[in-house]
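In this section we walk through a basic example: taking a raw amino acid sequence and producing a predicted 3D structure, encoded as discrete structure tokens. The instruction is simple. Fold the sequence below.
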Amino acid sequence: MSKLLFDLLVIQQGEYSLAHDTFALLTSTEFLDLPQDAAELVVTYANFAHTGYQQIARAFLPASFLISANRPLEAHRFLINSDQHCPFRAQTLRYLHQDLSQVQEIDSWDSIIHLIQAGQGIALLPDYLMARDDLMRTTPHQRFKIPYATFVRSASSLYESVTT
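The resulting token sequence is shown next.
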């Protein structure tokens, strides 16, 4: 599961339990390289098309370009993560028409959020972070839907891993 989905689905919504489930927080790129029998359940917004898994659910993570609600914007830089396959990164670059002159790449979601809180930039982030981290939308009507899906290891994949 990605960190942003973990924060939403496990911590805020309680859809998965720390007492009953084991989690690995992965980047979108790491999901694309996931071994066949690495997990029973995968929840990701990566473009995951692994033959050993079957999609069982699909939802959308509402997102917006966010800035600090408490500090003036000091740097008009768009902050993106360094994961080349991240849909938040891809959507930001599409929005900017691939103009990298306004972009700063940061390799950590936590660091991006802290920079936004400090008034050091703008980032496309899930809307649930607004209340939790004192953030606000740059424009009230511009919103994005980042799709994510839940996959289970298919029965044939489970059988193959037991018999090999």
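Looking at the output, two observations stand out. Strands lie at 41-44, 53-68, 78-81, 103-106, 123-126, 135-137, 144-153. The two ends are 27 Å apart (CA to CA). In the next section we compare this with other chains.
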